[in-house]
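TEACHING EXERCISE
Course module: macromolecular assemblies
Task: Read the component lines below, then compare them to the predicted structure of the full complex.
Student: A.B.
Group: 4
Components provided:
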Amino acid sequence: MTAAANGNVMLRAEKVSLSFGGVHAVVEVDIDVHEREIFAIIGPNGAGKTSFFNALTGYFFPDAGRVWFLGDEITRMPNYERIARGMSRTFQTPSIFPELTVYENVVLGVHSKMAVAGSLSGLGSRRKQADARVDELLGFVNLQRWKDTQVASLSHGSQRLVEIAACLSVDPKLVLLDEPTAGLAEADTARVMEVVRDLRDRLGLTVVFVEHNMRFVSSLADTIMVMDRGRMLVRGEPKEVLNDHRVREAYLGAEEETADV
Amino acid sequence: MKRTLDTVGLSLLAVLLLGMPLWMNIIQLNVSLGTSLLLFGLAAASVNILVGYTGFMAFGNAAFFGVGAYGSALFTHYIMPDNMIVATIVGAVCGTLSAFILAPFLIRRRGIYFALMTVAFGQVYYFIAYRWSNVTGGEDGFSITRPHLFGPSGIAMEGSAYYYYVLVIFVAVMVFLWFLVRSPFGLSLRAISQNEVRVRYLAINSDRLIFKALVISGMVAGIAGSLYSMSINFAYPLLMDWHQSGDFVMMTILGGAGTLWGPFIGAIIYTLAANVLSSKTETWQIIIGALFVVCVLFFPKGILGFLSRATTTSEDIDASPSVVRNEQAIPQGDPG
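Instructor-supplied answer key:
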């Protein structure tokens, strides 16, 4: 699995810090994510995982530190420009368009990629191309049947898959998933796990994800980074990280029974 | 079923609008009221682009409407007294420009701040018209003579002729809006209204689209204002006042924000109620206010939204599954 980590560095962050008022959510955290790597960030609630994610994806700009993506510095780049460069993300609660159909949710990113999201004229001959791309993406998450269904009426698990399809619609190279299995039933978790694995194995993407589900993390990740109280606690391959006594103290103590270590 | 109803509704509307001078005459109403219905419908449609589709509360569209009205009136008064087509275009351009100037200040504001900024900027236009009295006639406004269609030797545009001129432009704008709503741009606007963060995380610069929506809204309001000043042969500052903006928003929400025809229906109800009720009682605005409250409480999607839901048959509902369960949506794959 570590072979994957030998590729070029795709995402790099150096001493990233982010605070809200007096709360130091992220303190000097570094990260190096290599091409085709599956990189997991874990940690107890309030450890700063999502804040760090937000700093990487431009939801908030870090107070200090720098971020590079594909060799270019993006520390203070607007979020939509980062996405245009090949980054994409999901959110803890699925960030979708509830009143639009599954098709519309996914075609928006395709329009964006085709540079017609602001176009007043129809797509003309390119409509077929856009539709084919949507079909392909819905096929990937197995939602073709619900193409014309309003997303609000889908189950939570399906909404997550719609979000993943939307996330892929902009042809990213790097996908950041924030707790992809949060609130999912067992069967849905399995399906999402499969999709995440496919992101790398079938689509050749690089994946960074925040997760609480230890089975998910240990079976998928090439590298795990553990955060606690805004700082990076330890980083490495799943086995060594999950057996690290500091990690057990900080995080796994409470979850030892469920942890698949 | 719904499709049939839409076709029937549209055909009925077409007949009503085409025959309006005729039947208005029969029920002893002036055709200028019909013209006003169309124009307030357009003004409400301009609000609808922002309020209904993009989800931005715009309380300053009367400013664009008024700038369009003054644009045409001033042009007719000072520059080219007798050409309606050119005056209309000038009004549209003025409305567009007035929005274009404000848009950079508005596009970074959201929610209540956006709404307040539109009110504030709208009032700036109002006070310019109010204070710059040697050009605009100040509080009294100024009157114009309605121009001929293509210059002095063109067709005189009295009564029904002017109504049909307005109807043609009304239809053209509605067709344009129909295309807009169905275009990728229209979809992006609807997406912004639901989840702007996701729009940005699809590499779409939402600020730019909001800018475009504002400018198009200004254009439509400008066209409406321009035709309105030529309809009443008059331009006055109160056309730009925030009360007027509020009326446009009310029409939009009453009829159904986010639907193509809702604002027009709202404009009809509002204008007719104002016309009929104001001749009966001084407190007519209380009745309109009550109607508005009832509408917001019980028909949040407006009258058209309510009607379209009421006419959606169970057959239509069955055709699209409204609840999808986990087991169906997610095949039980091997966890791997």
